[in-house]
Amino acid sequence: MSEATLHDLFELLDLFVIEQKHDGNYRLVGSVPDWFEHLFPGAAVSRKPLAPENLSPFLENFLIDAQALWKQNRNCRTSSGYWMQTDASGREFPLEAFAIRLGNKRFLTIDQPIAAYNEQRNILQKGREIVLNKEFLEEEVRKRTEQIRNREEEVAVRLVAAAEFRDDETGAHIRRIGLYAEVLARQLGCPAEYVDNIRIAATMHDIGKIGIPDSILLKPAVLTDKEFEIIKQHSEIGAKMLENSRAPMINMAHDIALYHHEKWDGSGYPTGLFQEDIPLSARIVAIADVYDALVHKRVYKPPIAELAAIDIIKQSGGKHFDPAIIAAFLDLHDDFKKIAAYDDSSMFPEAAEDC
Amino acid sequence: MIQKKICMVGSFAVGKTSLVSRFVHSIFSDKYLTTVGVKIDKKVVTVSSRELMLMLWDLAGKDDYQELRPSYVRGAAGYLLVADGTRAFTLDVALQLQKDVESFIGKTPFVLVLNKTDLIDEWQIKEPQIEALRARGWEVIMTSAKQGQSVEEAFITLGSKIVDG
User: Fold this and answer.
1) What distance, in Å, lies between the first and last C-alpha atoms of chain B?
2) CATH tag, A148-354
3) Which of A115, A169, A274, B106 suits a disulfide with A164, CB 3.0-4.6 Å?
4) Do residue B40 and residue A83 have CB atoms under 8 angstroms apart?
């Protein structure tokens, strides 16, 4: 192809093209497009040496890549990517440069690809807006789900507190059982949904006490064998109240209510389940319930010291409690201690202010 | 006058362009317009009694469709690593980009900018995370390009790191 044809081609394509000669200087190929003159007035006049590195810091940087490409002994090219060039009035225009090695010739072309740039920008803009919108919606769903969960939890805690009002079990105790169960389940590596569910389900473990007569439930002395048999029924009464639900959390609460008095060695009640036949949720709540009862006052006993409570639970490993859950409990001793300190005023600060 | 190249690096829609716009032109627009390629602005600042011309390279944000080109950060005297406080994963992207930039141009002064403090109630980036980064020796500045909060501070702090070493 003759030089004249090349010039005509570049003019048709509205490209600014310069060639680097072997002495490192540049010469213009073809004519200067109007847009180039508008953006870089006087940069390509005939008596001035061409200095593309002075046109823009971006181009100065790109020339490093261009020089590396021109040293190669094969036909090749590389693009600078788009950059925005501002004219004297502050308007911005997209430009793109190419370094081309063609035979033994070294070209630098600069183009003003407005249409291609706008198309790419529109596609990217739409794509990113979709992603941002998706992020926003996911965050809204997460917030709403959390709000619903918090509402469920508060309703559960307050209802259970109302159901257990007769035997002096406070809302704080109920909430503490949920919190102990939550940290234990998380420590045992349970999935996030399981952990969220057990925090609420655990609070319903003794809901069956509503079916136990006051004379037995509130007796401030040791129960007779017959009375103990009656109070044991609270686990089956609670399970009946919670059965046949489609909600996973309520199903978990059913299992906890029914099985939280089963023992690892099979000596528990109501059915004498053995080891891992006892649902995990019930095994978790079993420890939580006993620990909380030990370190707090009950109608039938005073609280005992923290370390004594830990000793009792440790010694029950393999008999009353699942050894793996005891190990998790011992790792979480500090968390349990903090939870044990919650009382009604910290659980329901608005109620405390009204008192 | 000394010229220093500063790059704006971060995920998309974190506010890189808005930070430059606020710093250089004192303007802000709520409309999100994605950056394609590179835009270069400049501003003269005084740092440690010296005049510096900051050449601000506003780079397109990183996402699945656009990677950071090593040639764009070549020769940078420093960079602002920008994340959006309301989008937690943009901090993860920033942390990865910091490693990428360091692999491209070596240890270079930078400031981590957590933008959009005007939406602080919606922030997903929490104080413990910020403290952990400060504990690493990172300079972390919380800004609002919308309200102009701490924007100049971020650029001047970076300038100081560059000049004072």
Assistant:
1) 18
2) 1.10.3210.10
3) A169
4) yes
